[in-house]
Amino acid sequence: MTLKKGKLFGIGVGPGDYELLTIKALNVLENVPVICSPRSSPEKESIALSIIRPILKKRENREIKSTSEKINNDFKNEESCNKLIYDEETNIKGNKENLKVLEPVFPMTEDIRMLEKHWDEASELISGHLNKGIDVAFITLGDPSIYSTFSYVQKRLEKNFKIEMIPGINSFTACASSIGKPLVEKDEILMIIPKINENIGNLLKEGNNFVLMKTSRNTEELENIINEQNVEKEITSVQNCTMKNEKIIDGFPKNKPYLTTTILKLKK
Amino acid sequence: MTLKKGKLFGIGVGPGDYELLTIKALNVLENVPVICSPRSSPEKESIALSIIRPILKKRENREIKSTSEKINNDFKNEESCNKLIYDEETNIKGNKENLKVLEPVFPMTEDIRMLEKHWDEASELISGHLNKGIDVAFITLGDPSIYSTFSYVQKRLEKNFKIEMIPGINSFTACASSIGKPLVEKDEILMIIPKINENIGNLLKEGNNFVLMKTSRNTEELENIINEQNVEKEITSVQNCTMKNEKIIDGFPKNKPYLTTTILKLKK
Q1: Chain A: nearest CA to B254, how far in angstroms?
Q2: Contact A187 B195 (CB under 8 A)
Q3: Residues of B in contact with A167 (CB under 8 A)
Q4: pTM over 0.95
Q5: Which of the following CATH numbers is that of domain A7-166: 2.40.30.10, 3.30.160.250, 3.30.70.380, 3.40.1010.10?
Q6: Which residues contact A239 (CB under 8 A, 6 or more apart)?
Q7: What's the rounded Cα separation, in Å, for the pair A263 and A233?
Q8: Phi, psi of A261 (to 5 degrees)
Q9: Cβ neighbours of B79 (radius 10 Å)
Q10: Minimal Cα–Cα distance from A231 to chain B, Å?
Q11: Where are the domains of chain A?
Q12: Residue B66: its pLDDT value, please?
């Protein structure tokens, strides 16, 4: 008899507000035995993990409660009654019986060989669980199909394991909601641009509505190209969208935290 | 003393699967006194309304129960114990005490004067409630900022009323999840195209990843332009995404129901 393999979920947890999780994501995250949330450095918790903090808390309490009940019934030792604990050796945080939180490091680097090494390691860590028949939920900020680190793990594991993606709220639609304006109407084209480059002039010619993701990576020069467009334009930036420190700014902001998105509309 | 005005919510209910509602949308829809869901003809329920059917059922039961309890306690008449009823005159469906469902008609026409007349009427219907201090939730398929009928009502009411938009899952990210592939990675540009026209050639030149919304409106000629692109390409269409009758098709489909989206990737 062969063991049934676990299933990998790629779950979008939305832009920041816990309430922007979908019911589907919630149902999986409340029950899945392993949650994987990559972080950019060993010291920093990922934003995705901080978004689902209420679920972790709830599970922690539920699991402590159920373990306590078991202990009361069985008069067993209290060792398994621990809170979520961090196991340095395995890089695993969790109540040993019910929930494990894997936090592999995906460093912020452009060194592709170093990145591939980390993606390989994370995929191995995940497949170790899947091979034991344990389901794993990989969580990602926003949506798992849009500029997501999930893609790297997905490519490595899709041949051998069943994968289910659960879409999440994108930062750009959340930004439009925060601003309180439509992104696109009628037959308008929407262009999502993660990093503006020398083609920006052509793109500006072809479209009316643009989302510039990760504005923090833009250079002043490219912002100038946009500012110099000889048409009526609306430029609005949103920082830390739907989070407690959300900020909406007219134009391009001077200070640019990591989570800054700019919406650009050209009135041709 | 002036009456406090009601608030208008513009709520994205996602692509079709009830579980793709956000927690935030659920919280509002379970409690708001008036839900507005435009439909394309008087005979047809809107898809958005059919998605939130479980919430309507739950509220119906809850309200019947609470009304029955009241009757049992007070020995009052049973008139208010009705199920959701349809009032032909006011175009209002609802338990009179607790939930009203407004279903104004937004016909599928390109006659802009006729459309404006209907949008005006719907906005008046909604403002009638807001002016009485009653909150209204306008529901829309997908997300309220992306090609949504909500925009038309929003424009008419935003000067006089407080409006909150709640983002929803887009059809295109849901399609990517159903297909099980990323939409965009790294520094790739994503173009969302609602209606392909004579500029399609230029757009194809500038981008790699395209979402063609409402594929049903494409002509064969334009599909040929795409098919003739002399680069490796991946074309996948999704019909009725995340619904029970979801269908994933390689290339452009021959039969095109209203909810058909095509994802196009050019490997340049």
Answers
A1: 23
A2: yes
A3: 20, 169-170, 173-174, 176-177
A4: no
A5: 3.40.1010.10
A6: A245, A246, A247, A248, A249, A253, A256, A257, A259, A260
A7: 10
A8: -125, 140
A9: 9
A10: 20
A11: 7-166, 171-267
A12: 63
Q: Is the dihedral of CA A5, A27, A258, B163 positive or negative?
A: positive
DSSP single-letter state for residue B213: -
- Between B228 and B95, the more confident residue is B228
| C-alpha B25 chain-centroid distance | 12
The residue type at B51: I
Encode pLDDT of A136-158 as tens digits.
Answer: 999 999 999 999 999 999 999 99
Among partner residues A146, A188, A191, which is closest to B173 by beta-carbon distance? A146
Fold of the domain built from segment(s) B171-267: 3.30.950
Retrieve residue B142's tokens: 């997908």
Which stretch of B7-11, B152-156, B224-228, B263-267 has the lowest confidence by average pLDDT? Answer: B224-228
Cross-chain Cβ contact B17/A24 below 8 Å: yes
User: What single-letter amino acid sits at B37?
Assistant: S
Residue A186 has pLDDT above 80, yes or no: yes
Amino acid, res. B249: I
Interchain pair B170, A166: CB under 8 A: no
Does B21 sit within 8 Å of A182, measured CB to CB? Answer: no
